[in-house]
Design brief:
The chain is of the alpha+beta class. The protein has ten helices and seven strands. The longest helix is centred in the first third of the chain and has 25 residues. The protein is globular. The two termini are 39 Å apart. This is RNA polymerase sigma factor SigJ.
């Protein structure tokens, strides 16, 4: 049996690879578990480089998952957003954001083919050599290099303008929250970029806009309507790290329903707001610990 310690040393990295490829917390958890089962079945000392081997195994699993996931997402009601990764507070010792795990970038990656997405994530984010990626997607090294190049070009063209400064990001989120809770339309307009985009994922299970809302006036009105739906007597607001960036979780004490807000910020203005209300995508959250 392969060594448990070798696997545990790679567990966090494997989950990070899986989440970025699939955009799903549940799929990432399942992929790590499946990788462990395959690793456990190996004879001891059979693998010379556990890191490379395990990365290849979990990437293949996730690559296969993407095919069926794309079919499910094509039939999805309204915008499909990744399952958010939420943590209390955030890594305060860091001053910049991890763009590779941001919801805005993961949403752009949804527009790539499974092979392009896998090649981009493995090479550009995790520095996996092209020959190893070729084993994952069943292509030649030259083909994989082209896949990553196409994906990189599309990401550069379609990813939103976004600051990597954590303080700037947090100030914009705080201003948004105060304006919404205070019903201050003018303050909302001041913090929203003129071309801001609001995407809400209800999955057909919770009321949500089924197409993106674009423009600061439309988004401000939409945010105000949502704010008026909160009951101050039962509402709890958590300032959390949502996919490594300052975000918000608003929960109801009575029924446990929650809304997760993720933001993109550029030059002090909010350029994108992703709102996840589909309860299936929030089941993994440990709300009491936030």
């Amino acid at each position: 049996m392969a060594e448990l310690t070798d696997f545990e040393q790679q567990r966090d990295r494997l989950w990070a690879v899986a989440y970025r490829i699939t955009g799903s917390v549940a799929d990432a958890d399942d992929a790590v578990q499946e990788t462990w089962l395959r690793w456990q079945a190996l004879p001891a000392d059979e693998v010379a480089d556990p890191r490379a081997y395990l990365t290849t195994v979990i990437s293949r699993i996730c690559y296969d998952l993407l095919g069926s996931a794309r079919m499910r997402r094509e039939a999805y009601v309204g915008p499909w957003l990744p399952e958010p990764v939420v943590a209390a507070g955030g890594p305060e010792d860091r001053v910049t954001l991890d763009e590779s795990v941001g919801l805005a970038l993961l949403t752009v990656l949804e527009r790539l083919t499974p092979a392009e997405r896998t090649a981009f994530i493995l090479h550009d984010v995790f520095s996996v050599p092209f020959p190893e990626i070729a084993e994952v997607v069943g292509r030649s090294s030259d083909s994989v290099r082209q896949l990553a190049s196409r994906a990189r070009k599309r990401v550069r063209e379609e990813a939103p303008r976004r600051s990597v400064d954590r303080g700037e990001h947090r100030r914009a989120v705080d201003a948004f929250l105060q304006a919404v809770l205070g019903g201050d339309m003018e303050a909302l307009l001041e913090i929203l970029d003129p071309e801001v985009v609001w995407r809400s994922d209800g999955g057909g299970k919770v009321a949500a806009a089924r197409v993106p809302v674009v423009g600061n006036e439309k988004v401000a009105r939409f945010a105000q309507r949502l704010g008026r739906g909160f009951d101050p007597a039962t509402m709890v607001v958590h300032r959390c790290a949502v996919n490594d960036a300052p975000g918000l979780v608003i929960a109801d004490r009575t029924d446990g329903q929650a809304v997760v807000f993720a933001f993109s910020v550029d030059q002090g203005l909010i350029t994108e707001i992703d709102v996840i209300v589909n309860p299936d995508k929030l089941r993994h959250l440990d709300l009491p610990s936030l």
